[in-house]
Amino acid sequence: MPADPSNPAPPAPAILRVAILGSTGSIGTQALDTIGHLNALNAQGRHPTRYEVVALCAHESASKLAQQSGVHPGAALGLCNPAADQSGLSPALLTRGQDAPVRLVEDTRPDLVIGAIVGIAGLSSTLRAAQLGINIALANKESLVAGGKIVTDALFQSGAKIYPVDSEHAGLWQCLLSLEGPQYAPPSAPPESIRRVTLTASGGPFRGRSLAEVQDATVEQALNHPTWTMGKKVSIDSATLMNKALELVEAHWLFGLSADQLDAVIHPQSTVHAIVETVDGSVLAHMGPTDMRCPIQHALTHPHRATSQTRPLDLTAIGSLDFQPVDPLRFPAINMAQEVIKAGSSSGAVLNAANEAAVEAFLKKQIAFGTITAIVQNTLERFDHCPADSLESVLGIHAQARAIATELINSNTAATP
Ligand SMILES: NC(=O)c1ccc[n+]([C@@H]2O[C@H](COP(=O)([O-])OP(=O)(O)OC[C@H]3O[C@@H](n4cnc5c(N)ncnc54)[C@H](OP(=O)(O)O)[C@@H]3O)[C@@H](O)[C@H]2O)c1
After folding, report:
1. Residue 100 maps to which CATH number?
2. Residue 59 CB less than 6 A away from ligand 1
3. 339 is in which domain, residue-wise?
4. What CATH number is attached to the domain comprising 398?
5. Rounded to whole angstroms, how far apart are CA atoms 3 and 227?
6. Which atom of ligand 1 is nearest to the CA of 228?
7. Is residue 98 domain-resident?
8. Whose CA is nearest to atom 47 of ligand 1?
9. Residue 205 and residue 56 share a domain
């Protein structure tokens, strides 16, 4: 059911208790920066909400976590890698081990979880927050790609919502807010007013180069994204366009859209983030600066708005906006996403697991850049697909798919594109 546009948004809370999982990464640190900015506005009487950071969680970056703990002294802390050095962290505040994100969510019961862990490691805490009825500002797209059914089932049951942080989904959400009313938030059934949604992709560092030219691209070249500064995994995903593939699957789960309603287009300026075509032929687009603090702040203040600290978008400086079709032979990941959305079941978890294994292998210089998507495709083809309807089954599928991908990585011939 679309939200009633005549039903006004509720007043902003005086205090919002926030847990940041993945606080030491690119999104996590920008979330903390945005919270600092909003709290400064609050102190000046320019924003109604004060944000209290109640939990901070990293994998192994103990010294960064200790610095963050100094700024937010009451926050519970999590360190997921059991082998990580914990010096500088207060033992009284610290939870250790792989299940630290889940335990922090359970123990602190925040109003909002910022899901900024990279990869499948983010799934359990996203799911737990959804089960507990806690809204999630989600950057960790892999949770939805691998566990879309279990996470959205839990959200529909608890009534909690996802406030997308991924810039394309944040843009799409904002287009839909104007169509569906101020209380609209995913997950949702497909809004009846939508005919089609297009997500934009910058094309990454190798846009315009042939597959042969980039086959042996170095790690440094692949990490050199033209418009965004991000963590390593998402930067490599952007270079293969697997990031856009994961985002198409993410959009399917968030907004209830079918494969036929979703596509991607190359847009080198990364200024337009999402385009929504309505059934009457109108086209709404979301534009914004290439600064993740914009979508992060939108998720923190929804359904209200606050003055941002980001540089305003200057369209005259950008000059022109270009759009090009995605060449399916050059970027096979996009077709894989369409197939995964149609197939459902274990295919999302397999796509994600094979890609995680292949990207790790590329970063360790075990495989060529041009081999990453071939490993994912081969793993999808070899996998004996099955339902992905519990956390255990999704994690089992992930492990099996990683094993197949690892076998391909270790073999010299099977992964050749
Ligand atoms: N960066 C962007 O601009 C951007 C934009 C849109 C969406 N996203 C999505 O946001 C997510 C995070 O991306 P990012 O660029 O911020 O990544 P990142 O810079 O690599 O940071 C990842 C964070 O997750 C933690 N982490 C890593 N492995 C973990 C594990 N096994 N268990 C628990 N925590 C773990 C890291 O802790 P340590 O520091 O201790 O390693 C770090 O805090 C990804 O899903 C990405 O696709 C990112």
Report:
1. 3.40.50.720
2. yes
3. 194-288+327-410
4. 1.10.1740.10
5. 35
6. 3
7. yes
8. 234
9. no
Tens of pLDDT, residue by residue over 155-212, are 999 999 999 999 999 999 999 999 999 889 999 988 899 999 999 999 989 998 998 9
Residue 2: per-residue pLDDT: 47
Q: Which atom of ligand 1 is nearest to the CA of 166?
A: 6
DSSP letters, 184-229, are: --SS-SPPTTEEEEEEEE---TTTT--HHHHTT--HHHHH--SS--
Q: Is residue 152 domain-shared with residue 225, that is, in the same domain?
A: no
| Residue 151 shares a structural domain with residue 272 | no
Domain check: are 85 and 150 in the same one? yes
Residues 116 and 251 in one domain: no
H helices of 276-390, in order, are: 293-301, 315-318, 333-343, 347-363, 372-382
**Which residue from 26, 118, 351 has its CB within 8 A of the most atoms of ligand 1, so it is best to mutate?**
118
Residues 45 and 138 in one domain: yes
* Ligand 1 contacts CB of residue 235 (under 6 A): no
Q: Which band of pLDDT confidence, cut at 50, 70 and 90, is reported for residue 10?
A: confident
Q: Is the peptide bond before 186 cis (omega within 30 degrees of 0)?
A: no
Looking only at the bridges linking them, the beta strands covering 272-278 and 194-201 are antiparallel
pLDDT digits (tens, 9 = 90+) for 288-342: 999 999 999 999 999 999 999 999 999 999 999 999 999 999 999 999 999 999 9
Per-residue pLDDT, 4: 54
User: Whole-angstrom Cα distance, residue 355 to residue 317?
Assistant: 36
Confidence of residue 226 (pLDDT cuts 50, 70, 90): confident
For the chain, how many structural domains are there in total?
A: 2
Give 1's pLDDT tier (boundaries 50, 70, 90). Answer: very low
| Residue nearest ligand 1's atom 38 by CA | 59
Which residue has the least CA distance to atom 15 on ligand 1? 231
312 in a structural domain: no
| pTM flag (> 0.90) | yes
Q: Report DSSP state, residue 69.
A: H
